[in-house]
Amino acid sequence: MPERLRCAVIGTGGFGLDHLNSLLHCPRATAVAVAETNPERLKEAADRFKISRAYADYHDLLDQPDLDAVTIAVPNHLHARIAIDALQARKHVLLEKPMAMNAREAAKIVETAKKMRRTFMVAQNFRFNRHTQVAKAIVERGDLGEVYHARCFWLWRSNIPRIGSWFTQKQFSGGGCTADLGVHMLDTCLHLLGEFEVKSVSAQTFAKFGPRGLGETDWGKSALDPKKPFDVEDYSVALLKLKSGRTVSLEVSWAGHHAPDTREYGVDLHGTTAGLSLYPARLFRPGPNGFETIQLSLPIVSHNEDRIHHFVACALEGKKPLVAPEESLRFSSCWTRSTRPQPPARKRGPVSFGERTAGARPSDRIFRFTFWKGLFSRSQGLVLAACR
Length: 388
Ligand SMILES: NC(=O)c1ccc[n+]([C@@H]2O[C@H](COP(=O)([O-])OP(=O)(O)OC[C@H]3O[C@@H](n4cnc5c(N)ncnc54)[C@H](O)[C@@H]3O)[C@@H](O)[C@H]2O)c1
Known about the structure:
It contains eleven helices and 15 strands. The protein is of the alpha/beta class.
């Protein structure tokens, strides 16, 4: 096993620079090469991170025999092609979200990773967030009872990436806000539920701001095409029914008139004995003095960096990644269905969910932990113990 993983970054636009920065802080990796089609961005990345090998064509980078792994941050329509080429060149691959444009492409990536026996992981950074990880441990311990419904959302008021860039053109992005933001929260939600098998999806999408040139932000470095500015959704809503019968609602927007005092993104889990919400992680349940809220105060750390550290460790040690390729494959078919308007689900009678705790007085308990080490560390055990 090499001591340090020799890595390269393909695509050094807005988020490729984040990959390079994370690699810089990873003690078990070294960034040795970059590939980028835009000459200015290629030079900027190579100069800034002092990388001597810089390629305009990623195939030349993949030909380098001393390279162990690549991280890929290019427009979505290129994900599958570049990931498959890299795996076939025997490189380990960390691929940005969304994994692919559709489940067919995703299946080819997983098949190639298996065949070539390389580590493959989709960079679902929210799974590495401390709050998500504590939530996952609480759910797995059974503190919520039976979790029957979950709600996940990302509701931005005015954050459409530059209109006319690949982000706002379906042929390059595969979808609008759902492909960009929805995949973060939906993946986190299904990860917490431990279930990726979706039976049905009922969805509706809208494009109410982008086509009018409203709600734009300056994210993304790629070129603009003024002729084809916007043919994706800037708002989507979906109801997913999982194989177990549990339901998940998803609501996503790049732009919209949302109340300013609400969380921008998060996941809420409804269980028969307690509820849990992210972000931040909070637990709601009946206590000795009425209904109580347990707030988990955790240190803010970069989960983007953590997902690179984890990928590097998996590649070096041959461990299975936290974001398992098979989960990402199943996930590919469910998020793409959430960007397509579908006929509404059949009407059903009212459903009752467990007991009410009427008249209970809320009481808040706040737990603070100032230290935190590693992904599943001792402090996580302490947080969990404090929630008992
Ligand atoms: N995980 C996250 O939180 C997060 C955040 C932002 C973006 N992303 C993802 O990262 C990816 C890139 O997004 P971005 O915001 O950096 O976009 P961007 O447009 O800023 O950058 C993409 C870069 O890829 C380059 N590129 C295009 N074709 C290439 C090729 N064949 N070879 C090498 N480089 C090529 C472009 O020139 C550009 O510089 C997307 O898949 C996006 O969904 C993830």
